[in-house]
Structure formats: structure tokens, C-alpha cells
Amino acid sequence: MNKTQSIVVASLMIGLGLASCNSGNMRRDPGRVYAPDMTYSRAYDAYTYNPNFADSESSRLPVPGTIAMGHELPDHLKEGDTTAYKTFTTSLRFSEDELKEGQRLFNIYCAICHGAELDGQGPLYKNGKFAAMPANFKDGKYLHMPVGQMYAAAKYGKNAMGSYASQLDKKQRWQIIAYIKQVQSQNGGDAFTLGTATAAAPQANAADSTATGDKNNKG
Ligand code: HEC
Q1: Is 44 in the pocket of ligand 1 (CB under 6 A)?
Q2: Which residues of 151-174 are buried (b: 16+ CB within 10 A; e: fewer)?
Q3: Whole-model pTM?
Q4: Per-residue pLDDT for the chain (219 aa), expressed as one digit of tens each?
Q5: CATH classification number, 85-197, choose in 1.10.10.60, 1.10.760.10, 3.50.50.60, 2.60.120.650
Q6: Where along the chain do its domains lie?
Q7: Atom of ligand 1 nearest to the CA of 180
């Protein structure tokens, strides 16, 4: 191929290349829109300009003071405030189904140590893999433990027991504690007050705890 031939070939190729780009008449038409309601949202897209707000942003924060459905106000229980633990409680009340869910969560997160029977004989402890004895919720030492103290243990942990704050939300923590309290009430503990059936005030430290317990099976 001599010089002239290569120039001809090269310019042909450049010409073809440019023609294939069709730069004068760009084909950017997406064609027919079959579902315009879906293609062109009538709602404001998250990051688009929004004339309805002073800052023109479409992504909004929740209105201050709003609470997500199914949640309570944040608790202000401080770690280590053992005085507050004793009176801290919840306004939540649980149905039988929710208590069953509490049991399910207990069996997932707590029973490995505290035992499905709540007797502190979970497999991890029984097999000698865990040195510290988990609380035996059927023992007198724990039967009348204030719910706030239990809540604090679930939220912040207690000595060898870790915190469950990241695994269980507030409602789930209370749900588990309600389940423990329900079982305790059937094993010599205080009368159960966290169920929906009982409108009574949240559990207090019963002054005379034996009064309610004796009629129950101590199992
Ligand atoms: C890895 C084992 C382990 C798991 C899992 C565990 N615990 Fe514990 N828990 C312990 C031990 C050990 C103690 C005793 C701590 C102490 O008194 O030194 C304890 C103590 C407690 C106490 C008594 C707190 C107090 O103030 O004396 C409560 C209430 C409790 N646990 C609730 C729970 C709940 C609810 C769960 C599940 C969300 C759970 N635990 C999961 C090991 C565990």
C-alpha cells in the first residue's frame, strides 16, 4: 500500500466512524411511553427541587417529636443509675400473642444462658462453656426484681452478660421482660401486671411478696 492509498483508506474509516455516530440527529428518543404515570412520577423524587419548602428540598426529616409506629418515646435510663433502675418501668402492655413473641425472642437471645425454663441452666452454661452463672429467674433472688433493673440488664448488660441494645429494640426488650415476669408470676413471683388484660398500675415493688405467691405452684 503506497502513501496515497493509505491516506484514502484512513479518511474513509474516519468518515465511516463519524457517520455511525449520527451526531447531527441524535437518536435519544426513548420511544413510546406505555405507562407515563410510572415513567414520570407525580410525587417529588427524593433529591429533586421542591417549591413547597423554604429550603427547596424534597427529602424531609421526621417532624420533631414524632414517634415511629409501634415505638415509645426514647428512654432516659442512664447506665449505672441503679436508683433509677428500681422505679423505671413501661406503659406498654402485652397481649397473649405478644407474650408468645416475647417467649420466642427470649428463646433466641437469652435461653442459651438463662435456659428455656428460665432456671439459669441454659446449654452454654451447662456445658461449661460459660463461666459465670446466669440469673436463675425462678430463684428468690430474682423473683421480685424490679422490671427496670431487668430492662437495664437487657439494655446495658450486667457483668459477664453483654448488652442486647443492638439486637432488640425497646419494645422487644420489654416484651421479653414481660414474658419473664409472666413466668415468674406463675412460680411464686409478684402478680403479673404487664398484660393487656390487667389495667393495673405498672408493677410496684410489692411490699409483702409472699401474699400473692403462695397459691401458685412453686414447681
Ligand atoms: C451469654 C450468656 C447470657 C445471655 C445470652 C443472657 N444473659 Fe442475662 N445474665 C447472664 C449472667 C452471667 C448474669 C449474671 C450477671 C451477674 O449478676 O453478675 C445475667 C443476669 C441477668 C439479669 C439479672 C440482672 C441483675 O441486675 O442482676 C437479667 C434480668 C438478665 N440477665 C436478663 C437477660 C435477658 C433478658 C437476656 C436476653 C435478651 C439475657 N439476660 C441474655 C448471662 C447471659
Answers
A1: no
A2: bbbbbbeeeebeebeeebebbbbb
A3: 0.68
A4: 788 888 888 888 887 766 665 555 666 776 788 888 888 888 898 899 999 999 999 999 888 888 877 666 778 899 999 999 999 999 899 999 999 999 999 999 999 999 999 999 999 999 999 999 999 999 999 999 999 999 999 999 999 999 999 999 999 999 999 999 999 999 999 999 999 974 444 444 433 333 333 333 333
A5: 1.10.760.10
A6: 85-197
A7: 35
| Ligand 1 center to 125 CA (angstroms) | 12
* Minimum-distance ligand 1 atom for the alpha carbon of 167: 38
Distance from residue 157's CA to the centre of ligand 1 (Å): 7
27 to 15, 22, 30, 31, 163: CA distances (angstroms): 19, 8, 8, 10, 60
Q: Is the CB of 111 under 6 A from ligand 1?
A: no
Distance 206 CA to ligand 1 centre (A): 23
